[in-house]
Request: fold
Amino acid sequence: MDFELSEEQKDVKKAAREFARGEFDNDRASELELQLGFPTEIWKKACRLGFIGIYIPEEYGGQGLGFLENILVIEEFCRKDSRIGSALGFADLGTEILCAYGSEEQKKFYLVPVVRGESLSTVAFDEPETLPTEGIKHGENILICGVKRFVLNGGNAGYYLVPFQMDGRVSIILIEKDRQGIEFIPQEKMGMKMVSTGELQFKNVSVPMDHLIGEEEKDFYILENFISQTHLRLGAQGLGIAQGAFDRGLDYGKQREQFSRKLIQFQIIRHRLAEMATRIEMVRLLVYKAAWLIDIGRMDPKLCAMARASSGDLVVDVVDEALQIFGGYGYMRETEIEHFYRDAWLVDIFGGKSNLRDSIAKWVTG
Amino acid sequence: MEIYFKEEHEIFRKTIQSFIEKEILPLVDEAEEKEKFPVELFPKMGSQGFLCIRVPKTYGGRDGDKIMECIAIEELTKGSSGITSAFTTHGGLATDPILRFGSEDQKQRYLVPAVKGEKIGAFGLTEPDAGSDAASLRATAEKRLGGYLINGTKTFITNGPICHYVIVAAYTDVTKKGSGINLFIVDRENPGFSVVKKLTKLGHRSTETGELSFDDCWVPKEQMIGDQEGGGFNQIEYTLRSGRISTGARCIGLARSILEESMYYVRNAKKQGRMVGRSQSVRFSLAEMAMYLDVMKAITYRCAWLYDCGKVTMKDAAIVKLFCTETLCKMAYDGLRLQGGEAYLNSNLMQRLLRDSRLHRIPEGTSEIQHLLIFNELGI
Reply:
């Protein structure tokens, strides 16, 4: 057993932390958040330094590192700023599918722009119960019809990876955003406002057959693997946001004095900080282990789901406690903890908490 | 609850419900979005006798009891917790001290127009460096020229940006920690008074909250509440005790909305072809919400009844505030988890209910302070 990050991983984590410290400006981020804007400049810089698509092989412009390195970067980014961190954490969403299952052509065409900061990517996954997305063969093309909801990066991704039904089975196809028949309807959210989110409508969108991803028999694993990796992305966000909220609560507790004592001298506050720190450490072990298993080729979907579920519980509790330490200030938008509180919730409830528990229960009970 | 409600209470509940539906609900979304309180509601509420419920008829009030006030607060909060903040502050903290401790002249000049909604009141206790530890406040009121010169900064003041007057707590004798405090009524146009800034918040966005500054703000001695220097802290405690019961009523209003939203969702939503309501965890979650709401109602109205009988203690009020605010948050969290990503969208009421619910564990004594208050009366 070896719980140590490699030297390279430590360097990645440190570099991500320094980058976030140097580049993320709270006041500008607050302005951008109000305008629902994407942190374009910071993203482009992060791309130039190799933080985005860090797991993408070098021949396609990436760093050729592991998914754990990606997790470390997301954690550090979110720790500094939950808004910018989440936006950058989703910037390369879905490229892990292309890395694993894309054709040579697809990788060249679609991975490189994401790494270079020319395009965001995404996966349009969630659909209304009654409206499954469907495809029909039409000569050399496939016509896609349907609606996808809660599409992260929906408004500014260059392309979407879209699961759909055809001939009674699920396939995945890559659709560029400028194809005819696509409409994006933005949906405003309580938090994570820098991540453009909304509904994508596909009305007879014609896509060439060579945009299909993967070989047919593998499609089930593609989706399962993607879901697991998304759990870990969110898990890392939760971990970073929790750590960031903890840092701020602790700092404030050291400064703020009431009843002639610093807040951290009150036993109740000390115990709460102790418990938060303990739980953050537990979730970190779980998230790192699940990511490490991916990198050694032994992805464990159960562990990924557990990491995400516990990270969701953690982050909601920690932002809640941290806000309480700040008291009235915590409720004010000029205090950072306010957006940490709003942003944290997406980690916990995106895709449904009950669904997540159901799938973990399935693995646990056999 | 029925044991605490008389027929007049039931009639009152229906009356205020129809007023809220007609006059308040249509304004809520815009007020929340623009973070601007619809001030025209004050005279409308006043003309119906919905402000300052407990003020006697001699001052134009309704002469209602605490139970009736809680009914009004519960129903108003059910409509909009943000908008209700303005009314609970006005009808509680900003008028209670005048009603209980004020001079006849103060009652005529402030209470009478406040009841009508012609004057909007605010209450300034909290300071940037004095929150939970209220006695450490730094504002001073120095005796000068037959009056007092007030200096200090007050923050998180509900109605601050829209008020006509504010009741402010300041030390008349800085050598007497806690007991050297007095309350003063300061008019908005009083030289030396200013609203430094309007604060933007996680929730309660339709309430206007601000930071107030008193800079060599001179007031005649008639503006002091009570006849002698000192003793203001007891007046504050008296006011807060009543306010903590009101917070219980606010939690009930929000809790009803959360349960309602959750039930609506469960009745209509399907997942993987199955009604969501068939899920056992969903059923447990709803059952818990219903249980919490019931207990919140029981302890809040019991405490309001004790208040009306003149038997309420600080411990009773603190228990109401602690239990209701903590439980309300649990309900909001469960409500969000019940609906999943859906609840995260601005188009969904749940996210506002969450943001609004989170407030109540903080003002008028945080949950931590409520623990201390309860313990203090255990007699150990």
Summary: The first strand of chain A starts at residue 120 and ends at 123. The mean pLDDT of chain A is 96. Chain A has three domains: 7-118, 121-214, 219-365.
